[in-house]
Amino acid sequence: MTWMIIGGAGYIGAHVALAMHEAGERVVVLDDVSSGIPSRLPADIPLVRGSYLDREVLRRAFAEHEVSGVVHCAAKKQVGESVEQPIWYYEVNVHGLAVLLDEVVAAGIGRFLFSSSAAVYGTPQTDDMITEDTPCAPMSPYGETKLAGEWLVRAAGRAHGIATACLRYFNVAGAAAPELSDTGVYNVVPLFFDAVTKGEAPRIYGDDYPTPDGTCIRDYIHIVDLAEAHLAAARRLALPDAAGDLTVNLGSGTGVSVREMADMVAEVSGHHEPAAEVVGRRAGDPVRSVASYARAEKELGWTPRRDLRAMVTSAWEGWVLRHPEARVAAG
Q: Are 209 and 287 in contact (CB under 8 A)?
């Protein structure tokens, strides 16, 4: 079968496309390259330039490449931006998904894998591991669109006999190779890299939480582990008897405090000064957010294999590729 990776020139999408391609799956990418980078993809992965909101582009691409499964990795994904522009986020993430699914149904495509997010959980008030049964209460329009997307994917699957999977990502970092690294400066790892490169102190928002070092605890997953989970999910959906829907968390199952992350960034980068600066808490930050990946292990035979150091080291190598002054400054 042939898998179309929507958003496959993006940071996550390219890793997914490469993991599936290198494992022998037939892959084609559709990306409008508004934020995707075509050079992330090898020449033997076909790239269709266009938007998944464009029905004609979808129809032509599905037919030309004989697509039999879709992996949807494209979405607007900045929490703060979603608060400022909620209508745009719903237009792209929910209406766009409806357009895509409508064309999937029309083309008779029977497999659909959806990139979701731990943002669907909001700020769970629990010290336990977050399971797929933890109540969902998103705190931003972005999280709302991801939860609504899950509902839509499952409903379409039930109505039209499509085997579906929704993968809830926790905090993704790292790179399979420097040229594949994240180019955005939105998540904590690149934000810390950006600060130390400028000679500034990385910011820690609050150190008075009820945790061992007073800072919030998060679950970070290596992008290569995440991509391998997509491959496992796609292969499960491709089974002749695949049916119904699957929802799984994708995380490392290990909690890392913000202070521990700042220390790891300093160690890997060589930028120990200035030390991380503690500022006031941010509203809505959960004290602890760590995934249970037991269902992914059971259903997909998948477990994360790469640790925090490997994650930060690979991300730093990609950062230095684009910001060579960072290595010079580190001596």
A: yes
Q: What is the dihedral of CA 169, 284, 289, 136, to 10 degrees?
A: -60
Domain identity same for 189 and 275 = yes
d(CA 70, CA 100) in angstroms, rounded, equals 10
Per-residue DSSP letter, 134: S
> Which of 89, 121, 142, 293 is flagged as catalytic?
142
Contact 230, 16 (CB under 8 A): yes
Please state whether beta strands 255-257 and 171-173 pair in parallel, antiparallel, or not at all (unpaired). unpaired
Strand 217-222 with 255-257, pairing = antiparallel
Q: How far is CA 161 from the centre of its chain?
A: 26
246 and 267 inside one domain = no
| Whether residue 207 sits in one domain with residue 136 | no
| pLDDT tens-digit readout, 175-206 | 999 999 999 888 999 999 999 999 999 999 99
Helices marked H in the chain — which ranges? 11-22, 55-64, 79-84, 86-90, 96-106, 141-160, 188-197, 223-237, 258-269, 294-300, 308-322, 324-330
Give the pLDDT band (50/70/90) at residue 291.
very high
52 is catalytic: no
Same domain for 96 and 151: yes
Same domain, 205 and 138: no
Q: In this structure, is the dihedral angle defined by the CA atoms of residues 221, 222, 226 and 231, taken in order, positive or negative?
A: negative
Domain containing residue 230: CATH number: 3.40.50.720
Which pLDDT score, from 0 to 100, does residue 69 have? 98
Strands 203-205 and 277-279: parallel
> Which residues are CB-neighbours of 49 under 8 A, at least 6 positions away?
31, 32, 33
Averaged over 293-306, what is the pLDDT? 97
Distance of CA 186 to CAs 79, 86, 171, Å? 10, 18, 12
